[in-house]
């Protein structure tokens, strides 16, 4: 069966709740009315019983019979039966009284031949065990008809209330769910060309405002990811177009005419450099793809970060001497991680710092051992980094210099992206800061 809509469910729920409440109220009112009538009948019959006892004080006298007739004439719907202590019937005030009447003392109810009676059994003389019995019958048929009409009215009210509530509930639910329909309309219109659509959060009910905010945030993330993906595709095409063009051009020029064997050898060496650059670029892209899918699983081995850092500084020392840049390391700490991966991350940061440090500048590596982890900072003096560039520093193929230049694979704009992937694989995080002429990359690693 087709599932009911949310509006239909709410409407049926409103109708069911209204029917239950109306029925409960009606039943309570009916029971209260019935109890009230019983109480009134009890009071009436008790009063008549006292009058009859006074009138029948001397049941054999003619004056007593006159008072009895007078007492019964005051209540047209009241009848009396007198029976002896042996059960013999002495007197019936009406010939239409039922033959069989309840014998138990006190008040009871009797239905006979379509008529309803309230019956009260009591002795004529309370202090005599052989006293004749008085049976008072009060016709309450009109009371019962009233209660039946009231019950029919209750059922009619319950039905009409449920129907009216269902209709009003459907209208209210449809009106209340209008923001969801707007949300559905916006979602159905979202495509790769229209990711800038947003829901108006200011007119949303409080219950849906958070959902609208999350929906808008999701669209924002999708838009940002799509823009990054588009830029990423364009960057890949740009990075591969230059070496492919070089290979084609160089090969075509070489094949235009016969050449000496040394020229062919030189052409092959030149093509080999371009192919090695492309292979390194592809390897870096595969490395980042593994990181995106959580496939980077670093080995855990004890490392002395000061020793690893000194080895890398020694490797970069000749390059620093050429540009008269000072290299320095401060602090030490032990950490369990993947030696090759951490060396690659730190090497990328040192290479990046040396390229942007002016002559006579300084590059420092500071290691701080902390209680919950450690921090490793690579900082260099220079002009600093524009704050507007900070959010995109770790994007793939992103370079602060907008001019596209042919360069080696480590300068293709993937170094910081690879470094971030390595740090994340170790459970840490990396951020960039720039102030007072110093640019620094801060790595925070957890204690393992």
- Residues in helix, %: 40-55%
Order of helices and strands: HHEEEEEHHHHEHEEHEEHEE
Through-space gap between termini: 56 Å
What is the average per-residue confidence, as pLDDT, rounded to a whole number?
80
Q: Describe the oligomeric state of these chains in a short phrase.
A: single chain
Structural class estimated from helices and strands:
alpha+beta
Sequence stretches where pLDDT stays below 50 over 5 or more residues: 402-410
Instruction: Write out the strand line-up for the largest beta sheet, numbering strands in chain order.
Output: 2-1-5-4-3
Main sheet record: 5 strands, antiparallel
What is the molecular shape? rod-shaped
Rg over CA atoms, rounded to whole Å, is: 51 Å
- The number of distinct β-strands equals 12
Proportion of residues in extended strands: 15-25%
Can you count the helices? Answer: 9
Structure summarized in a few sentences:
By secondary structure, the protein is of the alpha+beta class.
Overall description:
This protein is an alpha+beta fold and 448 residues long. The chain is 53% helix and 18% strand. The chain is built from 9 helices and 12 strands. It has helices spanning 6-55, 62-73, 141-176, 178-188, 206-254, 261-292, 305-322, 339-355, 415-425; strands at 78-83, 89-92, 106-112, 115-123, 133-139, 301-304, 326-330, 334-337, 362-369, 373-381, 429-435, 438-446. The strands form 3 sheets. The chain has a 5-stranded antiparallel β-sheet with strand order 2-1-5-4-3, covered by helices on one side. Strands 7-9-10-12-11 form a 5-stranded mixed β-sheet, covered by helices on one side. Helix 6 runs parallel beside helix 9 and helix 8 packs antiparallel against helix 9 (415-425). It is rod-shaped, with a radius of gyration of 51 Å. The two termini are 56 Å apart. Mean pLDDT is 80; it is low at 402-410.
